[in-house]
């Protein structure tokens, strides 16, 4: 039923045979015979299609603007007839690979498994991995090796692919500019003769078995810098092996059955599919004593970044005190591979039909995921919200277990977050320390059900408002002066480089050097002092103890803070009113911390570490803590650079690019 | 082994079925070997157990002199499983097969996500049947839902399923979905088998007799919102919040009193048409059968912070209570009077003393979920709504006159002036 047998009796498969014969002119006798046998039925089919076309044409005449959708409809009809999987029980696969400036495609046994002719997209080397026994597509990637570092990603990926898999390569537009020798050597080791000599705007296709034979290679040299090589079309045959040869022989356990299902379907996950000594998919971390968050549902918000999701779930399931039964992965869209990853780990996953576009789509996905979470766990008072591009600290649940009662009891709290926006390698120090901040960091946080159900859900931004959900949550109408609790050292790490609001430079500048706790079982210090009133007492105590720094020095210089350890220092900056962050932003910039908007403040006070000393910054006179300023001290004022205006993010990212 | 000896005795008695006892015992050992907790909900056995409940409670470990409960020849024995207490291990079914059980799993869409059209990927197990020899165990899966109650799904066979696996029509659970309170359980030993049963079997049986559950019509509600986009204004959000909290308070108050009620009028229409509170309806409407009227209702609401706003009519005729909620949202309770072939409730115009009568076809009550509450609605909702709002109930109307707009309103005379002080009370 689900496996198509090309040589079995004709009737149920006639449409597919026709399609194959038509598109690929198989020279095979049997196929020709089949073609004749199905001729009559084909005639009928054609008649049907012509009729449908007629109807569509009529509609098109009536509604000229609907032309495109009618076209879509045609395509869909064709798609239905195409065998989706170039399937087993056949010894030989026909493979066709096309490389050109503006278009690449790969067809396996008549099925187009890759087709990219979009403009200004898909530049570089496209790689497809086929299962050597079934011919199924197991992975599809494109590495823009015109740009730097993409070749490294390609090498990483190729190394992850299991021996014996069929690899198909094709270049679109340009794939050599940043293709370094390491990568070329890897391609050479796969049997490519051309790869070492690939150069500017060459066209290239290659089909080979990892660690085995080469099935074909074609290359067209670019005659001149300004032009591209001629398109190349490689047609070749690949001999399939038996299923037994293509699979590992792991002991038959429930876990290995999941592993087998996963590994026969997708590629590029490395040792989890290694035949010898595969990496575990069950982790059994130590349970937590008196775990207050064992029954708190965990919603993992995911898109189509299955490799990220894989990494994220591994760290989540390795965290002490995790309860896999409470985890639900919400996938934005009908993507198969993220679901495969979810099933590999034996978790439950829910797919979400994408509504709306871009940020609004993410926002609607969040809403659906949160609503579903509280529907599925009606007893829950909280939900933990995670994203697919986060590493989760080993003591993530321990951190929450120790602090969650505050969220339950202190109504002035908005959330608990695992992320400290200002917690960089050089500004965070104490894993047992917590702060109260007026900004909501997200990136691994706890949401109170009552906040969601009574306040946020009923007025969640509708799809036509193209709002970021997190920006919306940070707005005063929603936050209503409430604060979040965060750790000094983050319990999550944002590793995603590809994303809606994310790119390599941005990540390098703002996320890469974030500090991430790796110490298990950290006992949090003085948790009760995080309550609203107690926190004020604590801050006053700190300020009383703090040594006032020398305000005549440049606060950007390292020497601004003495070479001590474990002391508390305070500096005062100018802050005319509550929303005046002029000096703070300049300070943040020179301290290389988050400066794109204001984060981590509490009543005009920022807390961080410099040189292992606690470093307090008070905005004068806006902050109520201004009274702690000795009258002799003049608050530091830092002028914004003259050029900077308009969009905040752009110059900052550009600055990061220069570093 | 105690069980073996026991079964020999059983087998020798006429009209008894030791097969059943054996199958139940095997099933109980299967599930306990996988650390799964089930409880007995078989109505026929619980009826028998209920008769002896005092004795069973007082000596939970006493050996049974005879097989009283699990030996009556039946096709099924029914157990319940709380979904959240087990992990869906495949191992259970493998062990079951090794023990000789054939099993059948009935899955369907997860109703907890049904209100969300755009989510998919989740079908959940609703029923399991484990068959051994001539006896089958029907395992009903209960899910916790918003509103702090348990829900089980209907049993519907899919195309490819073996319709003769067991005589499905005889099953006690599965004809309709059902809603239940979370039961308190009691571990007892009956017929030398250790099983959990509802602590109070008779109240469980009573609950079972009217447990039928109606899912909200989410698909139709979505279609409605396509035609008439939802009001997302702050006023609408605010009214919905108030109406919801008023309804929560009313449900708590009436449940504490033990007064049965259902969603009526605009609130019922909102549930049926759009699965939500209608933002421009200005109040919350409940129906109560006059036979369930209690004098404590008014003080109970007052104690809950909802002062009486007006009282029209009297217990014998056209009683109607109205309580003042937060701001200008009010709670109306209409009392329903039952006649041979219809039901009705009354209305009173305060300034003229005119009486009105609203007629409804007879109806029964079903459970549903509404704004995170388990509440009653008329099972025959369409007839109920149509009686009240006419055939065009699908079209939102902003101006509504309770004296003339309803299609089931009848003029019903005038209150005698000397009764006005009693039947027209306004605060």
Automatic annotation (TrEMBL), chain A:
It comes from Nyctiprogne leucopyga. One of its GO terms (biological process) is protein O-linked glycosylation via N-acetyl-galactosamine. The stem domain mediates specific interaction with beta-linked N-acetylglucosamine moieties of O-glycosylated proteins. It also interacts with its product, N-acetyl-beta-D-glucosaminyl-(1->2)-O-alpha-D-mannosylprotein. It catalyses: 3-O-(alpha-D-mannosyl)-L-threonyl-[protein] + UDP-N-acetyl-alpha-D-glucosamine = 3-O-(N-acetyl-beta-D-glucosaminyl-(1->2)-alpha-D-mannosyl)-L-threonyl-[protein] + UDP + H(+). It is found in: Golgi apparatus membrane. Residues 123-212 form the ILEI/PANDER domain. It is a single-pass type II membrane protein. The manganese ion interacts primarily with the substrate UDP-N-acetylglucosamine. Gene3D superfamilies: Spore Coat Polysaccharide Biosynthesis Protein SpsA, Chain A. The chain crosses the membrane at residues 35-56. This is Protein O-linked-mannose beta-1,2-N-acetylglucosaminyltransferase. Belongs to the glycosyltransferase 13 family. Its main location: Golgi. Interacts with DAG1 (via O-linked mannose moiety). Interacts (via transmembrane domain) with FKTN; the interaction is direct and is required for normal location in Golgi membranes. GO terms for molecular function: beta-1,3-galactosyl-O-glycosyl-glycoprotein beta-1,3-N-acetylglucosaminyltransferase activity; carbohydrate binding; manganese ion binding. Participates in O-mannosyl glycosylation by catalyzing the addition of N-acetylglucosamine to O-linked mannose on glycoproteins. Catalyzes the synthesis of the GlcNAc(beta1-2)Man(alpha1-)O-Ser/Thr moiety on alpha-dystroglycan and other O-mannosylated proteins, providing the necessary basis for the addition of further carbohydrate moieties. Is specific for alpha linked terminal mannose. Pathway: Protein modification; protein glycosylation. Its EC number is 2.4.1.-. Pfam families: GNT-I, ILEI. Its cofactor is Mn(2+).
UniProtKB/TrEMBL annotation, chain B:
Residues 258-295 form the LicD/FKTN/FKRP nucleotidyltransferase domain. Residues 1-244 form the Ribitol-5-phosphate transferase FKTN N-terminal domain. Keywords: Membrane, Transmembrane, Transmembrane helix. The keyword Nucleotide-binding does not apply. GO terms for cellular component: Golgi membrane. It is found in: Membrane. It is a single-pass membrane protein. One of its GO terms (biological process) is glycoprotein metabolic process. The keyword Ligase does not apply. InterPro entries: FKTN/MNN4/W02B3.4-1, FKTN_N, LicD/FKTN/FKRP_NTP_transf. Its main location: membrane. Belongs to the LicD transferase family. PANTHER family: FUKUTIN-RELATED, RIBITOL-5-PHOSPHATE TRANSFERASE FKTN. This is Ribitol-5-phosphate transferase.
């Amino acid at each position: 039923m689900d496996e198509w047998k090309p040589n079995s009796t004709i009737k149920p498969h006639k449409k597919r045979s026709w399609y194959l014969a038509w598109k690929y002119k198989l020279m095979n006798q049997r196929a020709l015979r089949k073609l004749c046998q199905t001729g009559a039925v084909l005639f009928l089919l054609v008649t049907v299609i012509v009729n449908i076309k007629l109807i569509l044409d009529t509609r098109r005449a009536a509604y000229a603007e609907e032309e495109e959708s009618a076209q879509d409809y045609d395509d869909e009809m064709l798609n239905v007839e195409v065998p989706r999987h170039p399937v087993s029980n056949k010894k030989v696969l026909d493979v066709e690979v096309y490389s050109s400036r503006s278009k690449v495609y790969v067809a396996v046994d008549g099925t187009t498994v890759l087709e990219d002719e979009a403009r200004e997209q898909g530049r570089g080397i496209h790689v497809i991995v086929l299962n050597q026994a079934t011919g199924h597509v197991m992975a599809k990637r494109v590495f823009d090796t015109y740009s730097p570092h993409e070749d490294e990603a390609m090498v990483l990926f190729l190394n992850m692919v299991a021996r014996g898999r069929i690899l198909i390569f094709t270049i679109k537009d340009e794939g050599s500019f940043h293709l370094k020798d390491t990568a070329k050597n890897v391609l050479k080791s796969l049997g490519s003769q051309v790869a070492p000599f690939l150069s500017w705007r060459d066209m290239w296709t290659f089909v080979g078995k990892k660690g085995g034979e080469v099935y074909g290679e074609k290359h067209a040299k670019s005659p001149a810098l300004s032009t591209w090589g001629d398109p190349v079309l490689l047609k070749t045959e690949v001999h399939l092996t038996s299923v037994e040869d293509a699979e590992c022989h792991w002991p038959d356990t429930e876990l290995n059955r999941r592993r087998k299902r996963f590994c026969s379907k997708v590629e590029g996950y490395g040792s989890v599919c290694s035949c010898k000594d595969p990496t575990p998919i069950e982790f059994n971390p130590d349970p937590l004593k008196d775990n207050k968050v064992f029954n708190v549902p965990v919603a993992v918000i995911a898109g189509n970044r299955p490799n990220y999701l894989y990494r994220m779930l591994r760290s989540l399931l390795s965290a002490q005190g995790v309860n896999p039964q409470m985890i639900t992965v919400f996938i934005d869209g009908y993507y198969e591979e993220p679901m495969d990853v979810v099933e590999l780990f034996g978790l439950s996953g829910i797919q979400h039909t994408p509504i709306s576009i871009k940020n609004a789509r993410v926002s609607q996905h969040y809403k659906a995921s949160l609503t579903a979470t509280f529907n599925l766990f009606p007893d829950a008072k909280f939900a933990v919200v995670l994203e697919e591009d986060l590493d989760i600290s080993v003591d993530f649940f321990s951190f929450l277990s120790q602090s969650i009662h505050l969220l339950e009891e202190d109504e002035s709290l908005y959330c608990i977050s695992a992320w400290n926006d200002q917690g960089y390698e050089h500004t965070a120090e104490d894993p047992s320390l917590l702060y109260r901040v007026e900004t909501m960091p997200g990136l691994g946080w706890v949401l109170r059900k009552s906040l969601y159900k009574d306040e946020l859900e009923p007025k969640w931004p509708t799809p036509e408002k193209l709002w970021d959900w997190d920006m919306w949550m940070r707005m005063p109408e929603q936050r209503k002066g409430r604060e979040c609790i965060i750790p000094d050292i983050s319990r999550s790490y944002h590793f995603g480089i590809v994303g809606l609001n994310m790119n390599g430079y941005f990540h390098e500048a703002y996320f890469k050097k974030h500090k991430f706790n790796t110490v298990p079982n950290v006992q949090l210090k003085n948790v009760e002092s995080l309550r609203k009133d107690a926190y004020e007492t604590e801050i006053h105590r700190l300020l009383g103890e703090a040594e006032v720094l020398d305000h005549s020095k440049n606060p950007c210089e390292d020497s601004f803070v003495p070479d001590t350890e474990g002391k508390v220092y305070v500096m005062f900056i100018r802050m005319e009113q509550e929303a005046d962050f002029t000096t703070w932003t300049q300070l943040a910039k020179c301290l290389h911390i988050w400066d794109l908007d204001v984060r981590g403040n509490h009543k005009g006070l920022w807390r961080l570490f410099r040189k292992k000393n606690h470093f307090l910054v008070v905005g004068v006179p806006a902050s109520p803590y201004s009274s702690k300023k000795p009258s002799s001290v003049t608050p530091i004022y830092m002028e914004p650079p003259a050029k900077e205006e308009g969009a905040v993010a752009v110059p900052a990212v550009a600055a990061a690019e220069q570093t | 082994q105690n069980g073996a000896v026991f079964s020999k005795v059983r087998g020798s008695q006429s009209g008894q079925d030791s097969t059943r006892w054996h199958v139940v015992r095997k099933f109980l050992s299967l599930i306990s070997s996988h650390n799964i907790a089930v409880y007995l909900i078989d109505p026929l056995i619980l009826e028998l157990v209920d008769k002896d409940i005092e004795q069973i409670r007082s000596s939970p470990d006493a050996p049974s002199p005879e097989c009283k409960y699990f030996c009556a020849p039946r096709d099924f024995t029914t157990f319940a499983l709380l979904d959240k207490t087990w992990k869906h291990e495949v191992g259970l079914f493998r062990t079951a097969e090794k023990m000789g059980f054939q099993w059948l799993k009935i899955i369907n869409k997860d109703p907890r996500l049904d209100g969300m059209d755009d989510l998919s990927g989740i079908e959940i197990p609703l029923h399991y049947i484990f068959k051994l020899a001539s006896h089958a165990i029907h395992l009903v899966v209960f899910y916790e839902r918003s509103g702090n109650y348990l829900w089980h799904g209907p049993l519907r066979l899919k195309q490819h399923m073996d319709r003769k696996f067991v005589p499905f029509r005889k099953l006690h659970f599965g004809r309709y979905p059902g809603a239940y309170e979370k039961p308190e359980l009691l571990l007892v030993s009956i017929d030398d088998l250790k099983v959990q049963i509802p602590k109070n079997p008779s109240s469980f049986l009573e609950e079972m007799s009217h447990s039928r559950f109606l899912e909200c019509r989410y698909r139709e509600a979505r279609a409605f919102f396509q035609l008439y986009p939802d009001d997302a204004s702050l006023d609408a959000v605010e009214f919905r919040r108030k109406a919801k909290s008023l309804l929560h308070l009313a449900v708590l108050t009436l449940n504490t009193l033990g007064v049965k009620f259902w969603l009526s009028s605009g609130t019922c229409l909102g549930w049926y048409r759009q699965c939500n509170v209608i933002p421009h309806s200005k109040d919350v409407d409940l129906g109560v059968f006059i036979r369930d009227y209690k004098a404590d209702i008014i003080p109970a609401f007052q104690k809950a912070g909802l002062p009486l706003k007006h009282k029209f009519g009297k217990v014998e005729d056209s009683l109607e209570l109205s309580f003042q909620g937060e701001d200008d949202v009010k709670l109306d309770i209409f009392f329903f009077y039952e006649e041979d072939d219809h039901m009705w409730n009354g209305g009173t115009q305060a300034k003229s003393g005119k009486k009105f009568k609203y007629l409804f076809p007879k109806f029964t009550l079903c459970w549903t979920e509404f704004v995170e509450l388990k509440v009653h609605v008329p099972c025959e909702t369409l007839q109920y709504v149509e009686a009240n709002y006419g055939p065009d109930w699908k079209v939102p109307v902003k101006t509504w006159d309770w004296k003339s707009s309803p299609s089931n309103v009848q003029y019903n005379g005038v209150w005698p002036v000397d009764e006005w002080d009693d039947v027209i009370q306004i605060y």
